[in-house]
């Protein structure tokens, strides 16, 4: 298929296969198509070191599909960053519902972002204080925050005022509290593409505001 000119963005390959083993296939792919990232998906308990060096990542068969999807997203994100030469941006996702958090992580990683995850207000503040963060996506309702994440946003702004915060809410508006964040969106009206677009807009807006300072 590759020799016939079929476009491929990634190869998922097994290790034990008839006719040609996974390590031989990986060697041939590296020689002829070095730009294509490779992920080994195998049931083997331990893969040879030589084979692991040929691939970008490994996933064991039989695990939760989210593990494979997350690995694919990470490899795509890293590959995109290396190809474009653009510094990878970091987004902090704050959400106490695990499935929602996983979905946002995969969404942002597939778009080339590095993702920090927090399911509690305390962890969110710890990560925000100790890591470089380009933007924050936070749910309004956090179970460990007595009702909402407003206090978390307020503390983040005290630490680094310039980092944009997008608040997600089930409400049509956040009167008063909306002034604490840079943007808020109603969950039911926000599709994945719009979420990515809004974060990209907020980061670019921050960069434009910082340009005069950098010029000086």
Molecular structure report:
The protein is α/β, with parallel strands linked by helices. The chain has two domains: 11-63, 3-Layer(aba) Sandwich (Rossmann fold), CATH 3.40.50; 88-215, Rossmann fold. Helices cover 44% and strands 17% of the residues. It contains seven helices and eight strands; from the N terminus they run βαβαβαβαβαβαββα. The protein has helices spanning 22-32, 49-54, 65-84, 98-110, 121-130, 150-159, 192-215; strands spanning 11-13, 38-42, 57-60, 90-94, 114-118, 135-139, 165-169, 183-186. Strands 5-4-6-7-8 form a five-stranded parallel sheet, with helices on both faces. It has a three-stranded parallel sheet with strand order 1-2-3, sandwiched between helices. α3 runs parallel beside α4 and α5 runs parallel beside α6. The mean pLDDT is 84.
Short recap of the structure:
The chain has 216 residues and is an alpha/beta fold. The protein contains seven helices and eight strands. The protein has two domains: 53 residues, Rossmann fold (3-Layer(aba) Sandwich); 128 residues, Response regulator (Rossmann fold, 3-Layer(aba) Sandwich).
């Amino acid at each position: 298929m590759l020799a016939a000119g079929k476009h491929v963005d990634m190869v998922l390959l097994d290790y034990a296969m008839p006719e040609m083993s996974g390590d031989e296939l990986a060697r041939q792919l590296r020689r002829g198509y070095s730009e294509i990232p490779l992920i080994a998906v195998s049931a083997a308990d331990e893969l040879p070191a030589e084979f692991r060096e040929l691939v970008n990542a490994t996933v064991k068969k039989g695990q939760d599909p989210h593990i494979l999807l997350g690995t694919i997203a990470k490899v795509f994100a890293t590959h995109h960053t290396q190809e474009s030469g653009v510094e990878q941006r970091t987004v902090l996702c704050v959400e106490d519902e695990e499935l929602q958090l996983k979905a946002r992580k995969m969404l942002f990683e597939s778009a080339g972002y590095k993702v920090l995850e927090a399911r509690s207000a305390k962890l969110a503040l710890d990560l925000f204080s100790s890591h470089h963060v380009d933007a924050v996506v936070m749910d309004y309702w956090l179970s460990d925050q007595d009702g909402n994440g407003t206090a978390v946003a307020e503390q983040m702004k005290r630490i680094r005022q310039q980092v944009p915060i997008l608040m997600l809410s089930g409400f049509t508006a956040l009167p008063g509290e909306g002034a604490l964040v840079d943007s808020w969106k109603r969950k039911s009206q926000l599709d994945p593409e719009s979420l990515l677009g809004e974060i990209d807009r907020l980061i670019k807006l921050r960069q434009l505001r910082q340009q005069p300072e950098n010029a000086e």
